[in-house]
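User: I'm putting together notes for a lab meeting next week and I want to include a structural view of one of the chains we've been expressing. I don't have a solved structure, so I'd like a prediction I can at least talk through. The sequence is below, exactly as it appears in our construct file.
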Amino acid sequence: MTQTYSKSRQQAEIAFGNAQSQYTARIHAVVEHDSALQDRDAKTLRLRVAREAKELQDRLAAAAALLAKRGRII
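Assistant: Thanks for the context. Below is the predicted structure for the 74-residue chain, given as structure tokens.
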């Protein structure tokens, strides 16, 4: 059951559809951008935690080596 609309109504429907398409595309782009930012932030945090753990491990190893060296000298 198709209805026929006036020319101005058809133009308005087309214009509205185009506006909705642009809005949807814009929202989709924002969601993708936010997702990329969240992924980057998560990776940065993961790498920071790994780096800090390695630095701590290196400091503890250096301290243990120093204590062992001092123990041998005494």
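A couple of points you could mention at the meeting. The chain has one helix and no strands. Residues 20 and 56 are 54 Å apart (CA to CA).

User: Perfect, that's what I needed.
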